[in-house]
Structure formats: C-alpha cells, structure tokens
Amino acid sequence: MATKARVMYDFAAEPGNNELTVNEGEIITITNPDVGGGWLEGRNIKGERGLVPTDYVEILPSDGKDQFSCGNSVADQAFLDSLSASTTQASSSAASSNHQVGSGNDPWSAWSASKSGNWESSEGWGAKPDGAGAQRNTNTPDNWDTAFGHPQAYQGPATGDDDDWDEDWDGPKSSSYFKDSESADTGGVQRGNSRASASSMKIPLNKFPGFAKPGTEQYLLAKQLAKPKEKIPIIVGDYGPMWVYPTSTFDCVVADPRKGSKMYGLKSYIEYQLTPTNTNRSVNHRYKHFDWLYERLLVKFGSAIPIPSLPDKQVTGRFEEEFIKMRMERLQSWMTRMCRHPVISESEVFQQFLNFRDEKEWKTGKRKAERDELAGVMIFSTMEPEAPDLDLVEIEQKCEAVGKFTKAMDDGVKELLTVGQEHWKRCTGPLPKEYQKIGKALQSLATVFSSSGYQGETDLNDAITEAGKTYEEIASLVAEQPKKDLHFLMECNHEYKGFLGCFPDIIGTHKGALEKVKESDKLVATSKITPQDKQNMVKRVSTMSYALQAEMNHFHSNRIYDYNSVIRLYLEQQVQFYETVSGRPRAFCMCSRRGFLVNHFDHVKLICL
C-alpha cells in the first residue's frame, strides 16, 4: 500500500524546479521518500507530482489516518529507522541525546531561575551537560527579520551524510552566474510569524565528541589532560585577561552568488564565492557548508565563546533577488565577525573552510574536524593562562558580573529592536501617507482657488501647488530613509542579540563547574576523589574563569567599536535627511500686497512690509 503523509506547513513550489505546491492539512502520496537533500517526491489528489521538503510532512500509518499520538516527520522516521540497525543500548543512548530547541524560548529564563536559587543546583553530579550545544538558534529573530517565511528544519549532520556531502560537491560545470531573470515570483512567500510554526530542530548530540559524555566533570576530573598540539594562550593586558591576537588580521569577502544545480538539474541552489583578504584566493560554498561550519565551531568552542547562529535556512522564495541579497549581507557580517575573533580565525577548522584546494582536501578536512575530541568543555584543556590561579570567591564574582551585564544588554538590545521595528513600520506606512494626504489636499485647494477666476491670486495658487508637490516628495524621502540609517542599526542589534543569546549557556557551564568544585570537599571526605583531584578542579575552574574574562574583553572592545560606528552612521544619515527635507524648494506666495509666506518648511513667517 502506498505511503501517505499529511502536510504540516504550506509550501509554494518554485517555477521550473520540479516542486509541488502543497497546503497545510493536505494528504499526499509519497512516491519516492529518499530523493536526497532533504526532499521527497509526492503526488497530490489531482495526480500532480513534484518535490516537497521532508520536514513539511509527517507520515501517516497504513490506514491513512492521522497519528497524532506519535506522528513523525519523514526525516524523523528515517532517523529512527537508521537507529534500528544498532543495538538496543545504542538506540536508547542516541534517542536520549536528541534534544529540541524552540525558536520562541527566552534563553535567559533558565539562567534567571538558577540565579534566584543562589547558584544551588538541584541536579546531581554529572546530571548537567555542558551548555554549548543548546546555543543553536537561541537568537531566532523576531518579526524584524521574518519577511522570508519558513526555514527548512535543520536535522543536524547525520551519520550517513558523507555520501550526500560528497555527491553535492558541484564543479564549475554545474554553476552559472545568478541573473535577475532567474528570480522567481512565487507568490507563496510566508509572512509574519510563520517561522514559529516550523519543525523543531533536532541535533543528535552523540554525533559531537565531548557532548555525549557528562558535563563539566569531564574536564574538571580528567586524571591527566593530554597536551594538545593547539594551544590557546591567555595573557593579562591593561584591561585584564585577553586572548592573544595574531600579528596580521584578515577579513573574508562574500560575493558573487551563483545558481547551481544537482540531481541532473532537478534541484537548484545558490553558491557564494568567499575570498580571504590575506590570500586573495577564492573558494565556493553553499549555505549548507556555512551551516556545517557553524555546527563545528559551536561544538568545538561553544562552551567558551559565543557562536551566533547563521541567517535562517528557508525553502520558499530562496531564489528571489531580495532574499539572496539579504542572506549574502548577513553571511558577510557573520564571516567578518568570525574573522575578527583571534581564536576562531586561527582555528584549523575555520582555516580549512577558507583555504581548501580541491575536493579531496575538503573531504579530508571535514572528516578530521568531525572527529575532533577537543570539543565542548574539553576546549578549556587547550587554554593556558599566564597568570596565577584565582580563588573561588573571585571566580564567582566575575561570573556573576558577566551574567548581570549580558542579561541587561540583552534586554536593552531587544527593546531597541522593538522600538526600531515600530519606527520602521511607521516610516514606511502611516507617516508617508500623512505627508501624501497633506500634499494632495494642498494641491486640491489650489485647484479650487484657481477656479475662482480672480486674476490676482496666480502666485498664491502656484505656491500652494508647489508646497503640495514638496510634501509628496518628502513622503518618498521618509519611506526610503530607514534603509539608509535604521537598517544598519537594526542589523547591528540583531547581531548582538544573537551573541547575547549564547551567554546563558556559557554562564551555565561556568556555574555548573563552580558547583562541582563546591561539592569537592564532600567528595574528598567520602573518598570519591583525592585531595589532588580537588586541587586540579580549582586550577581548571580558574582557567575557565580566565577564558570567560578574555572573551568578555574581546566582546567589549568589539561592542564599543561596532556601536560607535553604527550610531555615528545613524546620526549622520539623520542629519543629512533633515537637511535634505529643509532644502526642498521653498514655497513662496504673496498673501497680499503687504506680505509673503516665506521658508515654508523651516518656519512659517508672515513678513509684513
């Protein structure tokens, strides 16, 4: 019997892409569940066939009825099927390590709750995992950037992805320069809060070395830390602990979007050209490659360094010129941010992403990065502070200060985003319309006056008409102005919202480590650990504190630079805007033989002669 599936979200097909338009609640027949690349082939009740995202449907039982109690998406079912080949023990372990991250949850809620409990944890030793894995998409954007509909739900780098990655390597023959004519008017772009209804993102954490094991004790209680080849020194500068910055810095230019194809032309994608400024040698990457890099950086550094999410993946409207431009702009900001970080930019995985020379080198580097054991809390084992160990009181105070500041800044950034969004809507909606209404009303009044036949009012009518036209020009200026100033302020705040959304997990990791150290006396008393183990724990939690302080110093220096730049740009553009408005043609009219109406848009003055 043919497999049936129920559509969970509306999906509008891209023209010429062999896709099938489906609506929420519709029942389709799955004709090929394993097309690849997150797609399946289905047939609707009209007999029309086409490709549909796997995450937009859920399989129905053989009787064709909804299985609300345990309905799985096609992607989830495939994941479960892959687990069935393993032993029962491995299956239960993998299932327990899957977690869901909601796009609408406040990442600070758990931190605030634990803070009120005076840092006392109700969980037992080893119950709390390190928190870096939960950073993914905690900064899911609010309505400000939900103009482009559903993201495709991310399933994480699955165990069988190597083949998909290998066959998705697209040579020059499969790509062509993206042109305006290739933009599709789908008419199916979802608006508003449609992101909130997308599938939850599932990441099998047992795929990530260091995350499937217990939490901070993995690092704190390691009998002997292996001496890794990569060392991350921490020095003490004028403002406290800091990372060591490379002697020469570089950026990475993201440009030249190209439309490529795979599966014999059945599926299309956009590929971007990346050019590091220190080598000037370009490489090409798709969005899924950026997503892979994000996951690798999050897994490796997320316990110590905030890794903000990429711009969301989406299916509908992904080839529209406006969307491509916005995504490229945000990918550029993300890559620039990573290039500016002294630890991230010098890491092997980041350098390999930018400097691979051929397909073989890419695959080798990719698989090496996925087998990296120095991930999660073990990243602290690579850090070497050039300073004496800190005592627990000072460590706790430093952590508390970071928590207070980042929480307060998060609130401030969100408030500015909300106000900015409201102002944007007003500038592009009601306010220009008000100016247009005034302009039309003035011109209508001038038309009425001119019908009087009175010969002495020509100058007055002309002046009123010009004033009306000027108001209409001002309406256009007001509508366009947010793109010149508010856009950059909003983008900066959106970026920092992403950063700040990572800190609750980072702080949680540090607080968890402090709790373990506080419990060490009891563990020594019960002979569960030795006094030497306790000393090692204190030393290692001190290393974690130095890392946190070094990261905060980097964060503050970037924050000051970024906000200084963006606020200056905003104010300069605002001044230029008001100068332009006040410089519009002035409406002069003779009110009588004894007066003129002068300087209409600066001040209205009646000058009597």
From TrEMBL:
PROSITE patterns for this protein: PX, SH3
Acidic residues compositional bias, start-end: 160-169
Record localization: Cytoplasmic vesicle membrane
SMART domains: PX, SH3
Chief location category: membrane
Topology term for the membrane: Peripheral membrane protein
UniProt keyword Membrane, yes or no: yes
Domain of life of the organism encoding this protein: Eukaryota
GO CC annotations, alphabetized: clathrin-coated pit; clathrin-coated vesicle; cuticular plate; cytoplasmic vesicle membrane; cytosol; plasma membrane; trans-Golgi network
InterPro entries: AH/BAR_dom_sf (IPR027267), PX_dom (IPR001683), PX_dom_sf (IPR036871), SH3-like_dom_sf (IPR036028), SH3_domain (IPR001452), Snx9_fam (IPR014536), SNX9_PX (IPR037426), SNX9_SH3 (IPR035558)
GO biological process: cleavage furrow formation; endosomal transport; intracellular protein transport; lipid tube assembly; mitotic cytokinesis; plasma membrane tubulation; positive regulation of actin filament polymerization; positive regulation of membrane protein ectodomain proteolysis
Keywords: Cytoplasmic vesicle, Membrane, Protein transport, SH3 domain, Transport
Region (Disordered): 91-199
Keyword Acyltransferase belongs to the record: no
Domain annotation SH3: ranges: 1-62
Pfam families hit by this protein: BAR_3_WASP_bdg (PF10456), PX (PF00787), SH3_2 (PF07653)
Positions of the PX domain: 250-361
Gene3D superfamilies, per database record: Arfaptin homology (AH) domain/BAR domain, Phox-like domain, SH3 Domains
MF-aspect GO terms: 1-phosphatidylinositol binding; Arp2/3 complex binding; protein homodimerization activity; ubiquitin protein ligase binding
Compositionally biased intervals (Polar residues): 111-121
Binding, a 1,2-diacyl-sn-glycero-3-phospho-(1D-myo-inositol-4,5-bisphosphate): 286, 288, 327
UniProt xrefs under PANTHER family: SORTING NEXIN, SORTING NEXIN-9
Family that this chain belongs to: Belongs to the sorting nexin family.
Protein name: Sorting nexin
The species this protein was found in: Aotus nancymaae (Ma's night monkey)
Lineage, highest ranks first: Eukaryota, Metazoa, Chordata, Craniata, Vertebrata
Gene giving rise to this polypeptide: SNX9
